[in-house]
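$ ./design --mode recover --in tokens.txt
reading tokens...
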């Protein structure tokens, strides 16, 4: 077994104070600070790794001898969604934001999509997903019309009841929509998302775990491509495959929850592989952040903290564990239910290396460069700068 890197993306666990937060209308947002205010927040393992030692966290004391190296990372890309955030972690910076539709999709485009899928589309406005199925679900069941909506992010979401449109059929329709949207760069959203739901009436409708994302392909090479081309393993856990449209990924492990993701991580720690395991824990964002459920989010991070203790115990001397996030989704920010522009934590744990204060990273892309550097793969094609020498010195 050669060198292994585990990246765990705690989806949306930002740490506030992004220099350009005001540009995105998110000044003052801080996901971690909101979680810290909850009685449900208990994270001794993350604390021991140095989470509260990170520069700019002034609401809780750090510890004297953290176990991991730690940093605050700024996002350079012009966006605050999962696609752009993960792409930047992997070494690809997006100078232009992906297209958004704050007033809904243009009528000619809707007509084109309806013709392609053979069904009428209703809603077509920025909407909360739970509100969309509540308000349009019964109409959908009566007519067969699909519920199409967007958000502040670059997404096209398609909701359908599983009894009327089984998930596999909804996925097929989403693939058709993906192809239509990709015909013009101005409509090529970051993700087309299938949103199956169940229930008998508007009061009972609930989205299921059969969500599936169909992402835009990355416009350049990422660390996944470079590591894969070097003959090493690239293993996706959770929605990583979706966010990179499978590019550079040799094995994909699907999950329906954070617990699924951590079970997969623990199983991978026992496996003989060489390369990268890239893990996303999406429920922090989808179940708690967007729903503005601070206590639920805090409890979920606390549960992850318990699992993290088990994972670190399984790691060997040649393993590197990186814990980070892709953006914020401050559950205490009630002006919107959207993502928030924040810096993210970076914790780098190794049994071999002592803790270092890495200060401030000017791009998430530094993570991808460091991973390649550690695996002895050239990262010349990536943006960002490796900080491996600072960890190992």
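writing sequence...
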């Amino acid at each position: 077994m050669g060198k292994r890197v585990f990246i765990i993306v705690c989806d949306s666990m930002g740490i506030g104070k992004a220099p350009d937060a005001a540009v995105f209308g998110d000044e003052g947002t801080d996901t971690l600070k909101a979680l810290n205010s909850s009685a449900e927040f208990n994270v001794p393992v993350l604390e021991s790794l140095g989470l509260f030692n990170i520069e700019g966290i002034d609401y809780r004391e750090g510890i004297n001898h953290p176990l991991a190296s730690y940093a605050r990372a700024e996002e350079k890309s012009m966006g605050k969604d999962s696609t752009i955030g993960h792409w930047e972690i992997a070494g690809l910076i997006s100078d232009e934001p992906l297209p958004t539709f704050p007033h809904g999709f243009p009528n000619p485009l809707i007509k084109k999509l309806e013709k392609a899928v053979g069904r009428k589309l209703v809603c077509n406005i920025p909407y909360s997903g739970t509100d969309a199925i509540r308000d349009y679900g019964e109409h959908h069941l009566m007519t067969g019309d699909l519920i199409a909506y967007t958000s502040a992010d670059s997404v096209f979401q398609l909701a359908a009841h599983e009894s009327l449109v089984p998930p596999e059929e909804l996925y097929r329709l989403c693939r058709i929509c993906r192809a239509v949207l990709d015909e013009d760069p101005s409509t090529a959203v970051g993700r087309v998302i299938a949103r199956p739901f169940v229930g008998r009436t508007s009061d009972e409708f609930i989205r299921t775990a059969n969500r599936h994302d169909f992402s835009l392909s990355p416009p350049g090479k990422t660390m996944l491509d470079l590591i894969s081309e070097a003959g090493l393993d690239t293993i996706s856990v959770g929605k990583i495959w979706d966010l990179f449209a499978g590019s550079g990924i040799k094995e994909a492990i699907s999950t329906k929850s954070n617990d699924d993701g951590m079970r997969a991580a623990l199983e991978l720690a026992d496996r003989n592989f060489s390369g990268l395991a890239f893990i996303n824990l999406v429920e922090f964002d989808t179940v708690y952040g967007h729903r503005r459920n601070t206590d639920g989010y805090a409890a979920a991070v606390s549960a992850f903290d318990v699992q993290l203790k088990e994972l670190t115990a399984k790691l060997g001397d040649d393993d590197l564990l990186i814990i980070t996030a892709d953006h914020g989704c401050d559950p205490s920010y009630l002006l919107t239910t959207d993502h928030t522009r924040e810096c993210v934590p970076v914790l780098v744990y190794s049994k071999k290396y002592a803790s270092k204060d890495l200060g401030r990273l000017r791009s998430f892309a530094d993570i991808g460069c460091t991973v390649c550097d550690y695996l002895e793969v050239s990262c010349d094609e990536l943006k960002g700068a490796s900080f491996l020498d600072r960890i190992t010195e």
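exit 0
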